[in-house]
UniProtKB/TrEMBL annotation, chain A:
<dbReference type="GO" id="GO:0008017">
    <property type="term" value="F:microtubule binding"/>
</dbReference>
<protein>
    <submittedName>
        <fullName>Tubulin polyglutamylase complex subunit 1-like</fullName>
    </submittedName>
</protein>
<dbReference type="Pfam" id="PF24480">
    <property type="entry name" value="TPGS1_C"/>
</dbReference>
<feature type="domain" description="Tubulin polyglutamylase complex subunit 1-like C-terminal">
    <location>
        <begin position="72"/>
        <end position="268"/>
    </location>
</feature>
<dbReference type="InterPro" id="IPR057632">
    <property type="entry name" value="TPGS1_C"/>
</dbReference>
<dbReference type="InterPro" id="IPR039235">
    <property type="entry name" value="TPGS1"/>
</dbReference>
<dbReference type="InterPro" id="IPR047502">
    <property type="entry name" value="DD_TPGS1"/>
</dbReference>
Automatic annotation (TrEMBL), chain B:
<protein>
    <submittedName>
        <fullName>Nicolin-1</fullName>
    </submittedName>
</protein>
<dbReference type="GO" id="GO:0005654">
    <property type="term" value="C:nucleoplasm"/>
</dbReference>
<dbReference type="InterPro" id="IPR040235">
    <property type="entry name" value="Nicolin-1"/>
</dbReference>
């Protein structure tokens, strides 16, 4: 609904710029593209606080435009991009990882721009991802040891994406293992019985160690091993219901560490 | 299922006639064909092509525990509904094990008795006789062990005092799925390190 302002004969002074239509003004300044990008990002991330999200988005954009930013700022900006979508939203997640990677490679001083993100920056990103995912330093340490890189190394994109995905998935995994512990313990104030915990972790390990073969067969076999019936059987064997007295217990941290070990055993070490 | 017919010797049909074969002008109404088998066979099927035979009787000679005996497996099986008409006169037939009144196992000889009561036809016979043995049902594929334990155990387990298996199973399934996602996303991307066990080994360098 742009109304053309009545302009007299064409004037050659700067004031003529104001006589263009609203439509032309928007397209010249690139604001429509800017808003479109912002809305796309908002829809992808489905944030619960849209206004806060948009404020952060424009804040990051403006600081990018003003200057390259210090390295810390770049890391926090790339972390913000990585937090936009869950790893299960595969295409959105991949896009965000690509954006974060570009941000980190471009932030390096020109002479140091080798084929990838600097190792120290990469390790810092992973560490922050783990802490943002709710993992303590101690929980995340074994994983980071597997996948982190030396300070001087240059991390290519595929490795960067793999590391970021592994950290996100690991954070979810640890959260799930906490839920599992709560289910096995049956009461929030009592620790779970050791025999039950070990039986439950053993079934998970057995499912993870399903022999190689066609994917479908492997999935079917593994899911048969962790069906409710199989678990009921395993738990009943581990602690017969007739046994009334409580056996030794396992606390939450130990359970979490054991579960984490199962995951980390399957993470490929960086070579 | 391609089963090879067993090798057998088919003797020429012998006519059953009253009186002298040479002088008698009437045509024979019964022919007997013997089929000798090389080794005792459990018969699954006898297939043949008919040529104007109306009724068929099958007798087998079985070897059982050293003794041999004749057993009738099929009596007057009708091949042509109307012996005077053409219907069924040139058809292909198969006699299956299930149709036989006695189990045709360990068969040494098969005797086919052909009858054609009609005087319409100059001669009658059966041709292209094939005998197929029983094939042992091999398990074509191995049923995995876990498949046989899929159906839930009928005996209800006493789950008093144990955690709810549904909740536990659901958490474990998600943990398993997350690990699978991580493993599936791993690729051969490498950073190109040259160190051996975390350190450069000087002995590996060559100065030549």
């Amino acid at each position: 609904m742009a109304e053309k302002r009545r302009s007299g004969p064409v004037m050659s002074d700067p004031k003529a710029a104001k006589c263009e239509t609203d439509h032309e003004f928007l397209s010249q300044s690139g604001v429509s593209a800017l808003l479109r990008g912002a809305l796309l990002k908002l829809v992808e991330s489905r944030s619960e606080d849209p206004i806060g999200f948009l404020a952060e988005h424009f804040g990051h954009l403006s600081s990018e435009v003003d200057d390259g930013g210090s390295e810390n700022l770049t890391v926090s900006r790339s972390l913000w991009h990585l937090s936009l979508s869950h790893h299960s939203q595969r295409s959105a997640f991949n896009n965000n990882v690509r954006v974060a990677y570009e941000l980190l490679t471009q932030s390096a001083p020109r002479r140091r721009r080798t084929g990838g993100v600097r190792g120290v920056v990469y390790t810092e990103v992973l560490r922050c991802l783990c802490s943002e995912g709710g993992l303590s330093g101690a929980s995340a340490a074994p994983l980071l040891q597997c996948i982190q890189c030396h300070d001087y190394e240059a991390v290519p994109f595929e490795l960067f994406r793999q590391g970021v995905l592994t950290c996100s998935v690991f954070a979810d995994y640890i959260r799930k293992s906490q839920c599992l512990y709560a289910a096995v313990a049956r009461a929030p104030d009592r620790p779970a019985e050791r025999a039950l915990c070990q039986a439950v972790l053993a079934t998970l390990q057995e499912a993870l160690e399903t022999a190689d073969g066609p994917d479908v067969a492997r999935y079917l076999e593994a899911s048969a091993k962790i069906s409710p019936a199989k678990l009921a059987q395993a738990m009943a064997e581990a602690r017969p219901p007739s046994q009334q007295q409580e056996g030794p217990t396992m606390d939450a941290q130990e359970f979490e560490d054991a579960a984490a070990a199962l995951f980390i055993a399957r993470v490929r070490k960086v070579t | 299922m391609s089963v090879e017919p067993v090798s057998c010797t088919i003797k020429s049909p012998v006519a059953l006639q009253i009186g002298d074969t040479v002088s008698d002008l009437s045509r024979p109404g019964v022919y007997i064909t013997d089929i000798t088998l090389a080794e005792p066979v459990n018969i699954q099927e006898i297939s043949f092509k008919n040529y104007y035979t109306a009724y068929l009787t099958v007798r087998v000679q079985q070897r059982e525990d050293g003794s041999v005996k004749w057993v009738t497996c099929l009596r007057n099986h009708c091949l042509m509904a109307n012996p005077h008409a053409e219907a069924g006169s040139h058809d292909y037939f198969s006699i299956y094990r299930q149709q036989m009144s006695a189990k045709p196992d360990n068969v040494m000889t098969v005797r086919l008795i052909l009858r054609q009561p009609s005087s319409e036809w100059l001669s009658f016979n059966i041709e292209e006789i094939n005998i197929y043995p029983c094939v042992k049902e091999d398990t074509e594929w191995d049923v995995p062990a876990w498949l046989s334990t899929l159906t839930p155990v009928e005996t209800s387990l006493d789950l008093k005092g144990l955690p709810d298996p549904e909740t536990v199973s659901s958490s474990i399934q998600q943990m398993w799925a997350l690990t699978e996602i991580m493993q599936a996303s791993q690729n051969a991307a490498s950073i190109g390190r040259f160190d051996v066990d975390g350190s450069y080994d000087v002995k590996l360098l060559s100065y030549m």
